[in-house]
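Please, structure for the following, as tokens.
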Amino acid sequence: MLDDPDNLLDLDDETTGADERAWYVIHCYSGYENKVRHSIEQRIETMGMQDHIFDVVVPTEEEIEIKEGKRRTVERRVFPGYLLVQMILTEESWYVVRNTPGVTGFVGMGDVPTPLRPDEVAKIMNRMEAEAPKVKFDFQIGEKVRIGTGPFVDFIGSVSDIDAERAKVRVMVSFFGRETPVELDFLHVQKV
């Protein structure tokens, strides 16, 4: 990496233009992504780097989590421990980002950080702007669950089908000695 001051990039401010903006991936301590993003944004302001560092993004996506019969929307980091920074790579911009508390380095080959390809950036940004949040559930096909509401309340059955898009689960319940399929919302079942 560029940790050695004698081995810095030989980039001229005059030769780099706005067309040389690129997205770079930086590594930080997992769980500190938002704190590092905030620190970089403060350093951009205090060090006057608005013309070289343009955007800092923590890739996240919304997910619906169902726990204890309650549905809640949570924001989950797509790449824990990584941030995206849009910048023109110069010695000064590299120094500002690299020496931000919590940043452990740039992702790249050899001494020079490797920019992301435009199609990679588009894929990450599109994933962040997904229309409907994913539903996160913690049961699997064949697993025993207890029904929490409706006419089959407190019945125990086994999961036979999961429809994540509709947030529905089909449970096989023994009713009068017969296996009967019951379709329920994720909220209405819990692990046994």
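Residues 33-46 form the longest helix (14 residues). The longest strand covers residues 60-67.
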